[in-house]
Amino acid sequence: MTTPVTTSDAVPAAGGASAAWCDRCGEAAAAGPHDACAAARVLEPPRFCAHCRRRMKVQVLPVGWAAVCVEHGEIQG
């Protein structure tokens, strides 16, 4: 069973120390600058899991969003 992850625990979109993948475009975090992805993530929820690159199920709510990776669990924002 996985535990929910809050945005403070979430991996940064554009290549934090433990991020292997960009959570917006799904490309390798080390592949180059993800400035456009970082700018878009200010307004959008993540679309890909930063740990395994799987496409996540995303639900946008009036008070935020929730994204679920089948392997790593839920991220809320």
UniProtKB/TrEMBL annotation:
It comes from Micromonospora citrea. Required for the activity of the biotin synthase BioB. Belongs to the BsaP family. Keywords: Biotin biosynthesis, Iron, Metal-binding. InterPro entries: BsaP_C. Transmembrane segments: none annotated. This is Biotin synthase auxiliary protein. Its cofactor is iron-sulfur cluster. It comes from the Bacteria.
